[in-house]
């Protein structure tokens, strides 16, 4: 095991060195002067990075987005920004990194690349609002954090200048889990929710569409078992379709042939947030996608057959999930019995106006961006 870890560290060090060298010897290009670079997990075009990038381009900022080689776009809206896409690892990509000094991402700076030049502002737009414990609050995350401390290295948290938090309610969770002070936390609504709003649903065949979007778990009830149980219950619902979108760490865990009939694979959605308003109800568990979907005012179901084991694995939850104003079910059969029920919460609590303009103002006040870097 130690040999495997050593090999991975050597490979990582080589990747960082190669990236540093390519940036160092990249030619300067005036297009990238005073530019801002965005990206998300695995250089995908999605989440808060996508929506804030599109807003910033619309406001005249010299912004670019790093995308994975071969990434396919499912929306014609996305293609209109194609002249602003930088394919990961190309010459243009390294030219941009050489001159850019402002980077926005959703998970870690690895969303952008192996090496980011110093004297840069790193802003993590994050990817949700925590229910489960994380970072220094989670025994699970402490395992990998301890490796940085053992070698006296900066953790990813130490390298970020700012992190975006959805509201004051979640601020203390981030302060504790990342060991951040007030000065590094930007409180604002999430850009990915700026387009979510109540819309009427029309179905040509009259069938209901449900999205099951669980978070990652490494212990307790397996995701395969949870999906199998849901599939068994939905088989008999001829007027319903179940879309399953697994966490990226769980992709590929379901066997070939699992998706059939009214059970649909939703992992092909590059950006699930642009599709949320198309579903009649959401099924999730400990994922913050529940707070996103609540803006629609439609029913939300928490499917938690492993509540005790998952809570223990994470070292606890920030929020008492049994007191959330959503439908909690401990089995697939119980969940299906509640599908026809109306929303169990007040949608006005979660509705929020578009937040991109306010985020722009907050970043200007902190000196991360300025009006004079517009095109």
Q: How would you portray this structure in words?
A:
There is one protein chain. It contains twelve helices and 13 strands. With 375 residues, it is α/β, with parallel strands linked by helices. The protein folds into two domains: 2-194 and 354-373, CDP-glycerol glycerophosphotransferase, N-terminal domain (Rossmann fold), CATH 3.40.50; 208-349, 3-Layer(aba) Sandwich (Rossmann fold). The chain has a seven-stranded parallel β-sheet, sandwiched between helices. Strands 10-9-8-11-12-13 form a six-stranded parallel β-sheet. The longest helix is centred in the N-terminal third of the chain and has 23 residues, at 2-24.
Summed up, what is this model?
By secondary structure, the chain is an alpha/beta fold. The chain has helices spanning about 1-25, 45-60, 75-80, 90-100, 140-150, 155-160, 170-180, 225-235, 290-295, 305-315, 330-335, 355-365; strands at about 35-40, 65, 85, 100-105, 120-125, 160-165, 185, 210, 240-245, 265, 280-285, 300-305, 325-330.
Overall geometry comes to globular
Under CATH, the homologous superfamily of the largest domain reads CDP-glycerol glycerophosphotransferase, N-terminal domain
- Unreliable segments (pLDDT under 50, ≥5 consecutive)? none
What does the largest sheet look like?
7 strands, parallel
The ordered string of helix (H) and strand (E) elements is HEHEHEHEEHHEHEEHEEEHEHEHH
Let me know the average pLDDT.
89
Name the CATH class of the largest domain: Alpha Beta
The domain tally reads: 2
CATH topology descriptor of the largest domain = Rossmann fold
What's the alpha carbon Rg, rounded to whole Å? 21 Å
Query: Strand-residue fraction?
Result: 5-15%
């Amino acid at each position: 095991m130690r040999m495997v870890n050593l090999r991975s560290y050597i490979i990582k060090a080589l990747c960082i060195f190669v990236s540093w060298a390519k940036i160092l010897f990249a030619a300067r290009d005036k297009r990238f002067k005073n530019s801002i670079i965005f990206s998300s997990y695995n250089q995908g075009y999605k989440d808060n990075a996508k929506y804030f990038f599109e807003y910033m381009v619309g406001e005249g900022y010299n912004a670019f987005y790093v995308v994975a080689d071969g990434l396919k776009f499912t929306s014609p809206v996305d293609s209109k920004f194609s002249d602003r896409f930088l394919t990961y690892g190309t010459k243009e990509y390294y030219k941009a990194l050489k001159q850019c000094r402002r980077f926005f991402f959703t998970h870690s700076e690895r969303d952008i690349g192996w090496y980011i030049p110093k004297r840069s502002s790193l802003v993590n737009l994050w990817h949700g609002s925590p229910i489960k414990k994380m970072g220094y609050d989670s025994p699970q995350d402490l395992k990998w954090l301890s490796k940085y401390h053992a070698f006296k290295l900066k953790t990813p948290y130490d390298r970020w200048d700012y992190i975006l938090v959805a509201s004051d309610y979640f601020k203390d969770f981030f302060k504790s889990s990342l060991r951040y002070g007030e000065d590094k936390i930007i409180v604002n609504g999430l850009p990915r929710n700026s387009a979510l709003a109540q819309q009427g649903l029309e179905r040509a065949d009259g069938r209901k569409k449900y999205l099951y979007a669980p978070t990652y778990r490494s212990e307790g009830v397996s995701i395969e078992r949870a999906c199998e149980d849901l599939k068994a219950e939905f088989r008999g619902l001829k007027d319903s379709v179940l879309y399953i979108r697994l966490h990226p760490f769980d992709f590929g865990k379901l066997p070939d042939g699992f998706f059939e009939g009214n059970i649909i694979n939703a992992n092909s959605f590059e950006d699930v947030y642009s599709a949320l308003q198309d579903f009649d109800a959401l099924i999730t568990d400990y994922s913050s996608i529940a707070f996103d979907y609540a803006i629609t005012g439609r029913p939300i179901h928490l499917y938690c057959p492993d509540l005790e084991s998952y809570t223990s694995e994470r070292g606890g939850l920030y929020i008492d999930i049994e007191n959330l104003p959503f439908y909690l079910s401990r089995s697939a059969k119980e969940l299906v019995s509640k599908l026809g029920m109306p929303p169990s919460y007040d949608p006005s609590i979660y509705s929020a106006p578009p937040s991109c303009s306010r985020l722009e103002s907050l970043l200007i006040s902190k000196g991360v961006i300025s009006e004079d870097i517009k095109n």
